[in-house]
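Sequence in, structure out. First:
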Amino acid sequence: MNKKNKKEETPLIKQYNNIKSKYTEDTILLFQVGDFYETFGKDAIKCSKILDIILTKRSNIYLAGFPYHSLNTYLPKLIQSGHRVAICDQLEEPQKGKNIVKRGVVELVTPGITINEKILQTKFNNFLASIHVNNKKKKLGFSLLDISTGEFFLAEEKKENILQYLKHFNPSEILFQKKEKKFFNQFLKGKYYTFLMEDWIFNYSFAYEKLINHFQTNSLKGFGIDDLKLGIIASGVILSYLHDTQYYKIKHISTIQRIKKEEHMWIDDFTFKNLEIFHSFNKEGVALIDVIDKTITPMGSRLLKNWILFPLINILHIKKRHDIVQELFSNPSIHKWIKKKLKKISDIERMISKIAIGKISPRELIALHQSLISIVEIQKKISHKESKKIVKIVNSFQNCDTISEQIIQTIQPDSSHHIEKGNIIVKGFSKKLDEIRNLYFSKKEYLEKLCSIEQLNTGIQNLKIRHNNIIGYYFEVKISKKHKVPSHWIRKQTLSNSERYLTEELKNSELQILNAEQKILFLEKEIFQNLINQILKHIKPLQKNAKIIAKLDVLCSFSTIALENNYIKPKINYSFKLHIKEGRHPVIEKQFQSKTSYIPNDIILDKSDQQILIITGPNMSGKSAFLRQTAIIILMTHIGCFVPATYVKMGLIDKIFSRIGASDNISLGESTFMVEMNETANILNNISKRSFLILDEIGRGTSTSDGISIAWSIIEYLHENSLKPITLFATHYHELNKMSNFFKRIKNYHFYVKKIDEDIIFMRKLIDGASKHSFGIHVAKISGMPIKIIHRAQEVLKKIEKKNICIPTTYNHLSHSNNKNKKNSLMFKKIIHYLNKIDINYITPVEALVKISEMKNLLDDLSNF
């Protein structure tokens, strides 16, 4: 701002600029001016566009504003557009003779820190993340906080795992140090809202002190995180950020947990997308979560997502969940009754955070009381005889009767959402409050009597006493009756059809009424705050009850879908086998009107006999659906859910990998094939002995010969690898079916297609053996391809089928090798020798073409063996 503009600054603009200068450029300052929130300059231009409000200009300054009471309407839009918002309120009433009122920022709202229910999504967490990178950048410290629920996590992992955590948790905001801006720009690729913190905050001693001061402990050993130095730094940064954003009341953040990767199944982001767990590929499509989320409470819905993101690999814990679902499944009346009570339970987790921060409303406290009553009713109802497993859950509820009683004895059941509206405290709770209320209401009654008396004295039958914030209490007289107004009345305002008058009696009554109102509001706020302070002492038991309700809700949801969709209880053990009878895809089967329309399929996988299944069949025959349904059944088993099948018995799985479909990543210069190879390499580099793989059409992104070769070598690698992960491999390359002749744990299966004359029927049944035809031309025909193209394709196919291409192999060490294999092996060595002689650094394009021609001749020789 130049000197001329500074001289022209009004006191209000000067105050605004002083406060605005304390915040970052992307922070919008909402500046209370009377009954409005105003924005100025660049902020006004931004708000005008985001909020679709009028932009004006006065004295060369842009302005845009909205009514004070509309904050909850406009604030979410600003936050969701990726802005930080500083809310600056008037801290005193305007006074005569005083140029400017005192103002200050009462709240700083950011995408990652908010408890505003219109910004938050009830079924999703809203995480703030912090990442600290050490100098070597091999490991990153990582921390997450949802201030609306009090959940606080940390971890210390290599950057690839942290990237997966970011995709899993999808934080609304990420904090990192300024000096590492370049690293994080490359690491995050602009996919998240970020905020840069000062470098000095990323200090271990500072962070450790922050954490032990907050939790009021001598060390962090009790949380089991003492060894995670980088994670502790990241967590300390989050607490610092809360203080910077004026969140000091955070008692609900009562614990911190490490993310224990080793205790959960590892599923990468590609697999979640490929299996359509949370989102369908189609906008109108249905994801798995849409089918299995029958939770009733927001807490339950959030927990279910957490269970899906981190499936269990502790068999004992998995079986406990299965057993509880079984009890609910076997006791429909108990199950139905619990669900009925769950409907009366509010979002206790987020209520607790509002209580701690001081943003809870009277009506929400009544909802908390009703929730606690429902918890008690659930506990009393469940009998040990009927449900031994469920009883253990409900018996772990903490006694919160004192809180419940204090709320209902203090707060009016029909209280409003806003304490300023008054009348929230129960009559009889405070003698002093009752006395002031009696005075207040007696004065209100006196005004009614005064109006009746003046109607008689003046003869103005329609005389009214009204009130507004500008005049106060006044007599309102119709213009046609103004000649009857007594001379001692003081005319205050003239309107088109009426006039407003004051009297000494009205002024005196008004002072007494306003004084009583202020005293009532002050006392009610004081009593309300005392109640909040009492509840704060019971935060931990309230949080525990919220977690138990969430768990019970999810397990009830599992029972509900099992009953509705005919799911069964799976069996899980420490073997390396997978046996599914009549498995179904839980999403696809819902699209069929009749329950008998969906064709179920069996599968058996084990490391000794059927480690890898090569599955062939035309497009639309059901290959991809079968691959996905098998992975989904495994996932559902490990989260404690019943599954769509008639029988399931499986060994523990610790990782699920998938490679299904591919798409270009043009922005990064990656082709379809490059994406496919990157994802496949990630799988092969991270498999374990308990991994389950589904691979679909590997190698299709390149030429047929290259594709077959790559697919062959991948399957061979999985078979010969000492880890021997069980694998489903779907392909159109029929040449791969020959592998079962040479590798004992590879078996061929295909989806049966019935051919009638020139037509085909997809039977969608998986049967033993290799598919003899791809039926690609038939699929093209039924898709509406012009008949000329179909006929020409059939002619070309006949010519191609005359050539019998054979794939080279490297398995001469197998026991069933024969002379033909030895010849193939010899020829293969010859090709390898030929390739090794080529120096690719100096070969010219013409020479390369010659070499390719020579290579083709070698391959032709091989095919004639």
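Second:
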Amino acid sequence: MNSKINFSWLLKMAWRDSRRNYSRLLLFISSIVLGIAALVAIYSLGYNLQENIDGQAAELLGADLELSDNTPPTPKIAALIDSLGGQQSEERSFASMIYFPKNAGTRLAQVRALEGDFPYYGQLETTPATAAKSFRNQKAALVDQTLMLQYQAQVGDSIKVGEVTFLIAGILTKAPGQTGIAATVAPSVYIPLSYLTQTGLAQKGSRIVYRYYFKFVPKTNIEQLVKKIEPTLEAEDYNFRTVESQKQDTGRTFRDLTRFLSLVGFIALLLGCVGVASAIHIYIREKISSIAILRCLGVKASQAFLIYLIQISGLGLLGSLLGASLGAIIQQFLPAVLQDFLPFELETSLSWVSIGQGILLGVIISNLFALLSLISIRTISPLNVLRESFENVTLSRDPLKWVIYALILLFVFGFTWLQMKKWTDALAFTVGVTFAFLLLTAMATVLMWAVRRFFPSAWGYLARQGLANLYRPNNQTIILVVSIGLGTMFICTLIFIQTILLDRIKLSTDGDQPNMVLFDIQSPQKTAVTALLKQQRLSVLQSVPIVTMRLEQLNGQTSTEALKDTTTRRWRGLFSREYRVTFRDSLISSEKIVKGKWIGEVKDFGGVVPISIEDGYAERNVINIGDTLTFNVQGTILTTVVASYRDIDWGGVQTNFLVLFPKGVLEEAPQFHVLLTHVPNNEVSARFQQTVVQQFPNVSMVDLGLILTVLDEISTKISFVIRFMAGFSILTGLIVLIASVLISKYQRIRESILLRTLGASRRQILVITALEYFFLGTLAASTGILLAVAGSWALARFSFETPFNPQFLPILIVFLVVTSITVIIGIVNSWGILSRSPLEVLRQDG
């Protein structure tokens, strides 16, 4: 044999050998197809999202420039707006109760009072189409389709907003930047701005967002214009958005989504690679005699290694091509899954870049995992022709395996870093995935040891045979527990977390806990609203005064000086936001002091006022105990000092505040009130809301029962997206199972035929097979469920700080489905063994 490497001869040998084993090798490539398909679909989605965002950013914003704040424009901002020129529109938006006189329906909605021709790009999509223009010039409204459906309203009916009754001119189906989820949470009602004052809703203390939209002549350099006016906007704490910033913000949001989905798809691919490693391990074991004969004929170990590396590389490429093709098809359906989360209509196209990335990724990762077994070819000597068993090279004797393990971890880290852009996050993900794989592998190993150590000798023969197959040569225990167990863990963890979140809200609405919040109650209305509650036989569980103010200075520094301080990194909204604070002499159940001293009352007001700040907010903005904060309380300057930090449980139905004042300071300040009550059922809630809206149109209400329903809908949609991606892991696990069963079937033929030769019937072999896969499915599913329970308990205990009371019926269904599928696959794939003649035990299977 020529000592030089002859690649032509190597290719021929790889091809000739694969022709005799193509059915088994195709099982190898099937393991990675779904993982590649998931990644290609997600990559394509990411590229299509970016293209759509770039192309539709103007329609998402609806204008060239938007200025906004939650306070009326100052004289400087008003002068700036006038100086900008171009086409201008104004919008004032706020949350308010709306009322349908036709059926006395009430609902908290987002009221948008609009003046001008906004949107300048895109349009308000309405039914009829003319309503988008006609409502602006009359006492008419556009009502979101979710509200129209919920209250069975029709065009031509009326809707009451505050003190004014509007004709419903049209059904709003789409607005710039609005998503299906946003419409569910806060459905919009558009009215002409000219009628806002008549509604009586624009009162002192009302939470109104002021927006101004601009459209300039073509070729105007918007970024240069913004750069010119930005100092004035910053000085006045006004926000701005341009088409370019909208493009960046929206792109960043959906990049986070696609990165998350990519990691889920990558886990599916890693599961497939476990199947690759297992399949190649068994395949090479079958090839010991062939490789040993080649070695006897003078083929070097390196040449034998290259023959099978070429073979595996070619099949990895084929599997990647198939996966990429499937991913391109799946990508066409992803917009339907995600449409509720998108603020635009997603147009899809084929992304050759994402297809190329998927193919390259598939080839690299399939070869990496296949190398774990391929490098053992180097140790096969010609003497193996005379041996009946293959002596595995242990890790300690083959340092190359450690190198391959290191390369695999490095590759996982590199891929994750490219997705997450932070090495700490990438390291955490890599460690987490490695820990999950190692833990599942360890549990499978322990289970195999426990079965062998505590083998139930008293069981019947068939049960003992099925159980013994869990640790006999060619068993699938480890690969099945890892692949199916990890996929099951994903699904069950998702179910548990969804249950935790919903139960947490339900706990807040149980018993006598508040489940109705009334806000924007003006001081002169408080007595009358309280009387109305008593008239409806409802109790006032909590009454809270709220004072609005703005932060003027921090430790004597203005907003410009404080934000330019390079020694600290503070949020810009620290100064631009409107603070809503309250005052009281004691803490409530959701608060506790974690640092400093709580001072509940100031009897001799005249100096610096001691206040308490939420600890997380103080930490994020580098506000320390003893720092001075100067507030503008609607024209009155008030200097305070941070006396304590509070830890706040934001999960309960309580009125919690970032800044808390003591009694004796703000009693005479302009204020409005919030009342909390408990309504026993939906009928009482509807009747009470109708009465309040009719007598106090400016008072808004939040029905937590409705919020629970909305959250349930949102969580269902979100969980469907995650389940859709986790499904790739489950399916990949099943494919790995099928592949491992089919490949190991060739070794199991001898065992089964030997049993038949010794007198076992087909029924007995079938029962043994069914029991083996029942045990495997049970162990895999139960392992995944136990890990999900442990992980979810930790999340509930340490993250959500809530009791963990899982619903086990869905988990039982998952367990039964996974176990049943495992048994069915095992029986179907082993069915061919039963038709084999006992004489085959004497034949060599090629």
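Remark: The radius of gyration is 34 Å.
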